[in-house]
Design brief:
It contains twelve helices and 14 strands. The strands form four sheets. It has a six-stranded mixed β-sheet with strand order 4-5-6-1-12-11, with helices on both faces. A four-stranded mixed β-sheet has the order 7-14-13-10. The longest helix is centred in the C-terminal third of the chain and has 20 residues. The radius of gyration is 22 Å and the shape is globular. The termini are far apart. The mean pLDDT is 93.
């Protein structure tokens, strides 16, 4: 309910896009982002709760509420903090971690209505005297992954300071009004016009979207996920090959994804979605909120092109696209007359998340696990590069209406096989890379 003393704000363009996406999605679609942060050491629950309250008081995004007015949806910042759960204790369970994971899964998989439900919640879970979980869930209309990272780092700093009886220091966070002002300043600028011209020209002759799915079905919401871990030695080899090609790990992973589609479908002109922070100014990088965008990355391939050549081409495309990353994907769909028929430029998103999660709660290290990035229309590949020397986690998230668990598992296994061949010889032609195991090839 609207607090009468609170100022009403319009939504940012990113928030409006999220709002309309939920309005036109199936009822059981998930728009939550959720993480499980394992804390390896004892935690003072009272101090932790105090730190949560202080950080939530500093971060306006987690206190946002939405109301429908005669002139559309608007938002206000609630003066009080809601959503912080009391300490949950699973330590007496036969398998505390499994019990906690079941509870978290049920919580983040529940759809949440921006007008009526609690959009942000978090709490501390006790598994043992020296093993805790900080659970953090937010509707995407409040926060993106970068904003969630800002909150996590500040919470760790505040908790550690309170535990040591010292002042946490002034908050680094900016306000919602600053974020909205930056949004409008960009949309009123010449840069906005230049970015629009770039994207409209780039996709004037756009190719048809390509999918790996073997069936057509309307989205039903939900989420199908397949997770694997790439060992540190393999990641070191990937980084080395990328460096030799004057490339980077993200560019190599994007290139491998493009080649996988090329080998599986034969498509030579492919558009992939590349999530970006959209935060080009220093101030935007200090404001928790929803700013992230998806830029369409167009990759052209041919059979005789070498792995090295493709990586270099992808690198050029990525650098060029990042210069225009603030122009909203929703705006581009409108410019290309795709919105009216609910059409997209792409089916698949490749998201490299290199966020620094070297957090310490009172000196205790953490292990971060992504739990949910929301439902996907078709397929999304997430690569988590925590920079901790423990390798890469790779998630394949898919629409349950388009893929079965077995199909998703096979796609991930083939992708990993391709990745291994990809780095074995960067000068080999992409048309000769093997992705099928012997049994699959014999079956075909």
């Amino acid at each position: 309910m609207l607090e009468q003393t609170q100022e009403l704000f319009s939504l940012s363009v990113a928030q409006r896009g999220m709002w309309f996406a939920q309005k036109f999605s199936p009822r059981n679609s998930i728009f939550n982002i959720a993480e499980m942060v394992e804390i390896h050491g004892p935690i003072d629950a009272t101090v932790f709760t105090d730190a949560l309250h202080q950080t939530a008081t500093e971060a306006e995004a987690v206190r946002l509420c939405f109301v429908e007015q005669t002139d559309g949806l608007q938002q206000f910042v609630r003066s009080t903090v809601q959503g912080i759960l009391p300490l949950m204790d699973f330590s007496a369970d036969a398998n505390p971690l499994a019990a906690a994971e079941r509870w978290m899964h049920d919580e983040f998989m529940a759809p949440h209505d921006p007008l009526h439900d609690r959009l942000w919640t978090c709490g501390l879970i006790r598994l043992a005297n020296t093993h805790f979980i900080w659970y953090h869930r937010s509707h995407h209309i409040l926060l993106d992954g970068f904003g969630g990272g800002l909150f996590a780092r500040r919470l760790a700093d505040v908790y550690s300071a309170l535990l040591e009886n010292r002042a946490p220091g002034e908050t680094p966070f900016g306000s919602l009004s600053e974020l909205l002002a930056e949004d409008q300043l960009y949309r009123d600028s010449e840069r906005f016009e230049r970015d629009r011209d770039y994207w409209v020209t780039r996709f004037a002759d756009r190719p048809e979207p390509v999918t790996l799915a073997t069936r057509q079905a309307p989205s039903q919401g939900g989420l199908l996920r397949r997770t694997c871990q790439l060992p540190a030695a393999a990641v070191a080899r990937i980084r080395d090959v990328a460096r030799q090609a004057d490339s980077s790990l993200p560019q190599l992973m994007i290139s491998a994804t493009a080649v996988y589609f090329y080998r599986m479908t034969g498509v030579q002109d492919l558009v992939l979605g590349l999530p970006v922070t959209g935060r080009l100014s220093k101030r935007l990088r200090q404001i928790p909120g929803l700013v992230a965008n998806v830029v369409p990355l167009r990759v052209t391939m041919r059979s005789g092109m070498s792995v090295r050549e493709l990586m270099q081409s992808v690198g050029r495309q990525v650098r060029e696209s990042l210069r225009h990353q603030r122009y909203r994907y929703e705006d581009l769909r409108r410019d290309l007359h795709l919105l009216a028929e609910q059409k997209h430029l792409l089916t698949t998103v490749i998201n490299i998340e290199p966020f620094d999660y070297d957090l310490r709660f009172g000196g205790h290290p953490v292990t971060v696990h992504n739990l949910c990035n929301g439902s996907v229309e078709d397929l999304a590949i997430f690569v988590y590069d925590r920079g901790d020397g423990k390798g890469l986690r790779i998630d394949f998230d898919a629409s349950p209406a388009l893929y079965t668990g077995a199909e998703l598992e096979r796609h991930q296994a083939r992708f990993l096989r391709l990745l291994e061949a990809f780095v074995a010889d960067p000068d080999q032609p992409i048309g000769q890379l093997r992705i099928l195991e012997a049994a699959e090839r014999q079956h075909l």
